[in-house]
Design goal:
Blueprint (H helix, E strand, L loop, with lengths): L1 H20 L2 H32 L3 H37 L19 H11 L6 E5 L10 H5 L4 E6 L2 H8 L2 H5 L2 E5 L7 H8 L7 E4 L5 H7 L7 E5 L10 E2 L8 H4 L10 H11 L1 E6 L5 E6 L11 H4 L12 H8 L3 E4 L4 E4 L8
Parallel strand pairs: 1-2, 1-4, 2-3, 4-5
Antiparallel strand pairs: 5-8, 6-9, 7-8, 9-10
Helix pairs in contact: 1-3, 2-3, 3-4
Length: 356
C-alpha cells in the first residue's frame, strides 16, 4: 500500500510539471502507461481472487485490496483530468481571439461531450461578477456541465435532481466537502422553480444556468424570473429540427420514458429555445457538436461574441436514446402531440413530419 501511494505521488508531481510546460503529448503517454498499469492491476486481482477461492483464504484482505485499487484508480482519474483540463484551458486562452465557432473550443473533462470547452470559452470571453452556477438534472454529478467550473475555476453553485439517491451520492462524495457546492433533491416544475432558486441562490446576477430535466425544459426556463444568468445552457431535442418552434405540452408530472418508450419525446426544438432566449434578452451562440445543448449569452454582456442564426448553429443529434435511433423514433412518436409556441397551436408529430 505504501509503495502504491508513493507511486501515485510521483505521478501527481510529474503530471503537474508536464501541465506547467504545456506538454500534452507526454500527458497522453502517461495516461497510456497508467491504463496498462490498470490492466495489470485487474489481472493480478483476478489471480488473487482465484487463489483465495481455491484455498478459502482471507476474504477481508481481498476486500481491502479491491477497495485500495478502486481508490487508486479514482485518484488517478482525478489527477489526470485536472492536468489535462489545465492544458486545455491554457491552449484555449492562447487561441481564444481566433475562435469564430464555439465548436472549435470544445473539450471534455467532466461534461458529456464538448461542453466543458465551450463553457470555458464563454466564461473567458465575458465579464462575470458573481462566479456562481445553477444546474438541474445532474444525476450523481459525476458527468455534468458545471463540475469543471466548480473544480478548476473554483466557482460556487447549486445542483438539483429529482432522484434522492443521486443527491445522497453527491453529498457523500469528495467534491461536496472540497468545494462550495449545495445539492437539493427536488422535482422541478414551472410552478416551484422560482421558489427553489429564491431560497437557495445568493445572487440574482449569476454566472451560469444549465437546464437538463428531460422534459419541461422550455416551460421551466420561460418561468424563471428570480435569477438572470449571464450564460444559459439548455438541452434541445434535435429530432424536432430547427424549422418549427415546438415543445412538448406542459405537464407537472411528466416522465420521459413513461410518456413514450423511445426516449425521444422530450423538451423543445432549437427554434423554440432561441425565440424564448430572445424574449429574455439573450443571443444564441451555438450548439455542441453532438447536438445536445444550446448555448446563450445575455445580450448586455456579450462583448465580441458572435450571434449565430438557427440554421448555422443547429447540430443534428449524433446519439441514440436507449438504442432507439432518430429514424426509428419518428415512427414511435407520430401520434404524440407537440405545441407550436409561435402559432399557439397543438399538432400531432405526424402532421409536421416535413419540418423535422
Amino acid at each position: 500500500m505504501i509503495k502504491l501511494d508513493c507511486m501515485l505521488n510521483r505521478i501527481k508531481t510529474y503530471l503537474r510539471s508536464l501541465a506547467r510546460r504545456g506538454d500534452i503529448d507526454s500527458v497522453k503517454e502517461t495516461i497510456r502507461h497508467l491504463d496498462e498499469a490498470r490492466e495489470r492491476d485487474v489481472k493480478l486481482l483476478n489471480e488473487t481472487i482465484r487463489d483465495l477461492y481455491s484455498i478459502r483464504g482471507d476474504i477481508g484482505s481481498l476486500r481491502d485490496a479491491i477497495w485500495h485499487l478502486y481508490n487508486v484508480r479514482k485518484k488517478d482519474a482525478y489527477i489526470l483530468k485536472n492536468a489535462i483540463g489545465h492544458l486545455c484551458v491554457q491552449d484555449l486562452r492562447r487561441r481564444k481571439d481566433l475562435i469564430q465557432n464555439i465548436n472549435d473550443a470544445e473539450f471534455c473533462i467532466y461534461s458529456q461531450f464538448g461542453e466543458d470547452g465551450i463553457i470555458c470559452y464563454l466564461v473567458e470571453s465575458i465579464p462575470i461578477e458573481n462566479k456562481y452556477f445553477v444546474e438541474f438534472g445532474v444525476e450523481n454529478y459525476e458527468e455534468a456541465n458545471t463540475r469543471f467550473l466548480l473544480i478548476y475555476y473554483n466557482w460556487s453553485g447549486l445542483v438539483m435532481d429529482v432522484v434522492e439517491r443521486y443527491i445522497e451520492d453527491i453529498k457523500s462524495s469528495e467534491v461536496y466537502w472540497r468545494y462550495d457546492l449545495k445539492a437539493i433533491n427536488a422535482f422541478i416544475t414551472k410552478n416551484n422553480i422560482n421558489e427553489l432558486l429564491k431560497n437557495n441562490v445568493p445572487y440574482e446576477d449569476i454566472g451560469l444556468l444549465s437546464i437538463d430535466i428531460d422534459g419541461m425544459d422550455y416551460w421551466v426556463w420561460e418561468s424563471i424570473e428570480v435569477v438572470k444568468p449571464r450564460i444559459v445552457i439548455c438541452e434541445y431535442n434535435a429530432l424536432f429540427g430547427y424549422k418549427k418552434a415546438i415543445t412538448i405540452p406542459y405537464s407537472d408530472d411528466f416522465e420521459r420514458f413513461r410518456a413514450n418508450p423511445s426516449g425521444w419525446y422530450f423538451g423543445a426544438s432549437l427554434k423554440a429555445l432561441v425565440n424564448l432566449a430572445k424574449r429574455k434578452g439573450y443571443i444564441f451562440v451555438g450548439c455542441d457538436s453532438n447536438g445536445v445543448n444550446a448555448f446563450f449569452v445575455r445580450e448586455d454582456v456579450k462583448g465580441n461574441l458572435r450571434e449565430v442564426s438557427i440554421e448555422e448553429g443547429y447540430k443534428p443529434g449524433k446519439f441514440k436514446q436507449i438504442k432507439t435511433s432518430a429514424a426509428e423514433a419518428v415512427e414511435m412518436l407520430k401520434d404524440m402531440e407537440v405545441y407550436d409556441v409561435e402559432e399557439n397551436k397543438t399538432y400531432k408529430i405526424s402532421q409536421i413530419l416535413d419540418y423535422l
